[in-house]
Write a structure and sequence with these properties.
Layout: H1 22-53, H2 55-65, H3 68-95, H4 102-126
Helix pairs in contact: 1-2, 1-3, 3-4
C-alpha cells in the first residue's frame, strides 16, 4: 500500500545543514589522499617505462617529472603519503577499541594533520 504521509516526514540532514566534525573530515580526507597517491604512482611508473623505452622518450618524461608541476605533484604526494600513513595508524588503534572517545579521537585528528605537515617538511629537508 502506498504511503500517503510521504510529504509530512522530516528530511534527512543535508550537507548545507550538517556541521562536519574533525573525525569525519579526516576520514574522508584519508580516502581522498589514498586515491590521490595513484597520481604519483602512475607518474613514477610512466618515468620508469620511459627509462626502459629510449633516451629521447626518457628525456621528455624526465623533463615533465622534474618540472615545477612534477615537483608540486611529488611534494603533495609526499604529504598525502604521510597523512595516509598516520591516518592508517589511527585506524589500527581504533581497531583495538582504544581512542574512540570524542576528545581522544579529535586530538588524534589534530595530531594526524600537524604530524603530516611536520613529517613532510622533515622529509624534504633530509632529502
Amino acid at each position: 500500500m502506498a504511503d500517503v504521509n510521504r510529504g509530512n516526514r522530516p528530511l534527512s540532514p543535508h550537507l548545507e545543514i550538517y556541521k562536519p566534525q574533525l573525525t569525519s573530515m579526516t576520514s574522508i580526507f584519508t580516502r581522498i589522499t589514498g586515491n590521490a597517491l595513484l597520481v604519483a604512482a602512475l607518474m613514477i611508473v610512466w618515468w620508469f617505462l620511459a627509462a626502459a623505452t629510449s633516451a629521447e622518450y626518457f628525456a621528455t618524461v624526465d623533463g615533465f617529472v622534474t618540472s615545477w608541476f612534477g615537483d608540486l605533484v611529488m611534494t603533495l604526494s609526499l604529504w598525502a603519503l604521510w597523512y595516509h600513513t598516520l591516518a592508517g595508524i589511527r585506524h589500527l588503534i581504533w581497531d583495538t577499541g582504544r581512542g574512540l572517545e570524542v576528545e581522544t579521537a579529535e586530538m588524534m585528528g589534530i595530531v594526524i594533520i600537524a604530524g603530516s605537515f611536520i613529517l613532510t617538511i622533515l622529509t624534504l629537508i633530509i632529502i
